[in-house]
């Protein structure tokens, strides 16, 4: 049975009870909804993998309230701490070596890390996520709250469509404001590396570091959940389209496709004014809507690649791969 509650104070209390008992709670973050479990409880974490139908045990992001909580779990270098101080709470995930605990119980179990000696940590900014983390007082492991292979959910309804019956409680906090997942930066190698482009633009991170982000090492674990077809919807997407072909519907940006005169076959415009933040917020809901309508062939307008455009184009490439 899945309960869905508006995310008020009473619902947070209920959520903490469920997490403490090893159950699953879906909750909104500023990026996408997460499917949360007590990160220190391997049985609870195993339920996350079962609910998502994940093929393997990808390591999960451990959500924490703040930098102090993160430092109980990971060895954060001065540069990693600088990013945390600058961008947390917010859409940035830091991968760093796990802290040697010497017998003290770690808040993130081996299964949540998929056995790696590193851990991915993020302090989300969404008030519901913050309230939940503060009330629970321990890290919450949470991948995006979708079935494996589906796009990430940005509403409680999306979560219910994918995971009804598999999650104990969905905290409904409305639509998430950002709409794309967090940016993941690894501090495992000497040079910080961008493992996944996301809501926080690379340029802002590089400005804070006063250095370029490296590409991930080939032999490093490169955000293992990022297989190319990870975000694939059922529809076939043709990217950077200059107009519609026969049988195609359009996913527009800034009215570019509409300008070719195919207005009645345009399913949505991610941002009529060409605002990239708005486009990011609308992307996953638009992809879900395309599948819900059973459309087979979609032409996607070109989208600029700078700033948040790097993450939007990354997700579109994955959605187009098959
Ligand atoms: O915005 C987000 O990041 C959302 C919200 C819920 O916080 N979460 C999210 O989680 O997107 P998920 O599980 O869908 O993606 C987590 C990514 C995966 O690609 C995973 O492989 C990577 O983080 N990851 C986790 N731990 C890692 C580690 N120790 N080393 C390298 N990559 C890691
Ligand atoms: Mg995901």
Entry keywords:
four-stranded parallel beta sheet; binds magnesium ion; 9 helices; alpha/beta; DHBP synthase
CATH class of the largest domain: Alpha Beta
CATH architecture of the largest domain: Alpha-Beta Complex
Q: H/E order of the elements? A: EHEEHEHHEEHEHEEEHEEEHEH
**Low-confidence segments, ≥5 residues, pLDDT <50?**
none
Helix content: 25-40%
* Averaged pLDDT: 92
Number of helices: 9
Short characterization:
This protein is of the alpha/beta class. The chain has helices at 9-20, 42-52, 67-71, 78-87, 127-136, 156-163, 202-209, 276-292, 309-320, and strands at residues 3-6, 25-28, 33-38, 61-63, 92-97, 118-122, 140-141, 169-172, 183-186, 193-196, 236-238, 249-252, 266-269, 297-300. The protein folds into two domains: 3-209, DHBP synthase (Alpha-Beta Complex); 236-320, no CATH class.
